[in-house]
Inverse folding.
């Protein structure tokens, strides 16, 4: 009587068959693709889904046409093999450990097996769809690069590097609706965000915010800055400025959709100005309590949280803004180039950095925050703004992508000498809440002819 096969025997058989398939195509078995399990006497469950899943992931990252052609066959064969063998393993496991008899590790193992088998089938379908549309994705990349040629001189070196050195078709995928999109999730360093940063001007080494003395003291004493909802802007037309210029039909649709309010209530905006407005009399008058307030200088840092977007505002309309023109072309509204639209997920956030040319004198820098979930470091409250209840965030200064580097006292401030000394004492007492507090400079405006 032949010895009874164990679960490990089925695992070994799967590994051997997959390894043979790889070797037949000249792709050597890699040590990192080892399968590990739980307790052998209970059940062996893969910590990794199946070897072919890793092969597929490797394949998508390759930009070498010759390697990709060979790996296509590897993927197709190994997926078929993996599903067949793992399916047999699943059935065998269920025969040995029927549902409802065992508890603990057995229940956990059954759950893991079901998830793994589901993942393998889903990845197999993704692979088939990917291979089927492979040529379309390559064509789309070629078209994006063709469009981008005209913008190389307008957007600069970083844009050139991203489009003509980094971008390749393995970075794209199809959505269920048939649009093309970048496969990676949004993060500060994802390709989409780097692309938008390259077509929008990044802040200079310093940015500035003029404010009343009351607002300044509130920020320093609490160690937090208030960031208001985008629905609390005094000029509501800014909310739809991009959509109105980009696509008239979408603009109308956005206004009448009730679900759009949930999205807008997750967006928060904090406004600053660039280094062309240092100690500027007009800014003092408009934003710092008729020059009796404070101007805070911030220095951008390397850290930026996921969901935070920082850049200078691009001023222009659809006919005089390179950013508008480029976004409109690569996202498929120019029928000369696309059968499938390119969907940019992060456009939902970066579009608020495009503003009418009428406001160009503001030289505005914006911090946009997408916040739609609980966060113990960021507190959400509600208040009234221009007669409308809107949410706002209280962001700890340590969570911002910049830190205070200098404080300038307004030209019309009262008791400037006393004020300067008291601000220094306040900063010293709040050193735990204020990053770099010991090195913050304090000075007085050089404007001496204010009337």
């Amino acid at each position: 009587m032949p010895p009874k096969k164990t679960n490990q025997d089925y695992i070994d058989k799967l590994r051997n068959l997959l390894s043979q398939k790889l070797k037949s195509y000249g792709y050597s078995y890699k040590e990192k693709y080892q399968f590990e399990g739980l307790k052998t006497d209970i059940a062996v469950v893969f910590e990794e889904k199946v070897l072919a899943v890793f092969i597929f992931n490797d394949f998508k990252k390759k930009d070498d046409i010759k390697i990709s052609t060979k790996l296509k066959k590897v993927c197709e064969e190994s997926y078929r093999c993996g599903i067949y063998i793992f399916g047999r393993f699943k059935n065998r496991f269920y025969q040995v450990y029927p549902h409802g008899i065992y508890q603990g590790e057995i229940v956990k193992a059954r759950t893991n097996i079901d998830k793994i088998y589901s993942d393998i089938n889903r990845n197999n379908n993704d692979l088939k769809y990917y291979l089927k549309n492979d040529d379309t994705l390559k064509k789309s990349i070629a078209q994006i690069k063709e469009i981008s040629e005209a913008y190389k001189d307008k957007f600069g070196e970083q844009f050139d590097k991203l489009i003509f050195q980094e971008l390749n078709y393995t970075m794209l995928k199809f959505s269920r609706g048939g649009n093309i999109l970048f496969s990676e999730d949004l993060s500060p360093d994802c390709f989409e965000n780097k692309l938008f940063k390259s077509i929008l001007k990044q802040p200079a080494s310093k940015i500035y915010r003029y404010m009343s003395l009351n607002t300044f003291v509130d920020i320093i004493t609490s160690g937090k800055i208030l960031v208001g909802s985008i629905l609390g802007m005094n000029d509501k037309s800014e909310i739809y400025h991009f959509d109105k210029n980009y696509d008239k039909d979408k603009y109308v649709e956005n206004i009448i959709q009730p679900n759009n309010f949930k999205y807008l209530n997750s967006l928060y905006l904090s406004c600053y100005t660039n280094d062309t407005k240092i100690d500027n009399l007009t800014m003092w008058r408009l934003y710092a309590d008729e020059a009796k307030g404070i101007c805070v200088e911030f220095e951008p840092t390397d850290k930026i949280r996921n969901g935070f977007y920082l850049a200078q505002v691009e001023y222009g309309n659809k006919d005089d803004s390179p950013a508008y023109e480029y976004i409109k072309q690569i996202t498929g509204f120019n029928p000369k180039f696309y059968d499938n639209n390119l969907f940019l997920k992060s456009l939902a956030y970066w579009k608020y950095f495009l503003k009418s040319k009428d406001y160009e004198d503001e030289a505005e820098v914006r911090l946009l925050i997408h916040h739609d979930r609980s966060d113990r470091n960021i507190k959400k409250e509600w208040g009234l703004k221009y007669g409308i209840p809107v949410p706002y965030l209280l962001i700890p200064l340590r969570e911002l992508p910049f830190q205070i580097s200098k404080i300038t006292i307004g030209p019309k401030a009262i008791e400037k000498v006393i004020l300067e000394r008291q601000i220094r004492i306040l900063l010293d007492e709040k050193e735990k809440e204020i990053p770099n507090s010991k090195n913050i400079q304090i000075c007085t405006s050089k404007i001496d002819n204010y009337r």
Notes: The first strand starts at residue 172 and ends at 174.
